[in-house]
Backbone:
């Protein structure tokens, strides 16, 4: 006498069905990762532009009050003890992650949304005006202005 196993009313998934579900999940995951990367990059760009805006306002106000610009690649005069209080108040609004200074070394560093130091040129902007330059998401700046690496750079003068 042989006993047959009773047949269950539930059947398992076939291999094709399981692969289809895994493929759909992989597509959804890829979309979520792609969208979140884009949103993070956009947030870093906006943070960089906001930091540049505050610092450029401080630089312009510093020039109006002192009749000089901070020297090339040296934003320390904006936060030094002898800087105009109005200028120091402007830079103090920036988060510590975006603008730091060292009184002993008399240095200051402005960082972009990707955590990289920005470059300050006293006369490097269009028309010889001051400019802050971020390397952008690729974190690369090429000396040749038209180089492809510079396409994602973020400039305070908008060019």
Residues:
């Amino acid at each position: 006498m042989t006993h047959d196993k009773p047949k269950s009313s539930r059947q398992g998934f076939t291999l094709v069905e399981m692969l289809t579900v895994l493929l759909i999940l992989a597509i959804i995951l890829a979309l979520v990762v792609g969208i979140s990367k884009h949103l993070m990059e956009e947030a870093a760009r906006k943070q960089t532009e906001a930091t540049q805006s505050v610092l450029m306002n401080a630089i312009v106000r510093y020039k109006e009050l002192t009749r000089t610009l901070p020297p090339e690649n040296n934003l320390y005069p904006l936060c030094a003890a002898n800087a105009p209080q109005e200028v120091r108040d402007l830079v103090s609004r920036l988060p510590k992650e975006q603008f730091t200074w060292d009184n002993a070394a008399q240095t200051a560093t402005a960082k972009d949304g990707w955590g990289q130091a920005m470059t300050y040129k006293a006369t490097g902007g269009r028309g010889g005006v001051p400019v802050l330059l971020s390397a952008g998401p690729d974190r690369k700046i090429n000396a040749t202005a038209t180089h492809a690496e510079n396409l994602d750079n973020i400039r305070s003068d908008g060019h």
Remarks:
- The radius of gyration is 27 Å.
- The mean pLDDT is 87.
- The chain is about 40% helix and 10% strand.
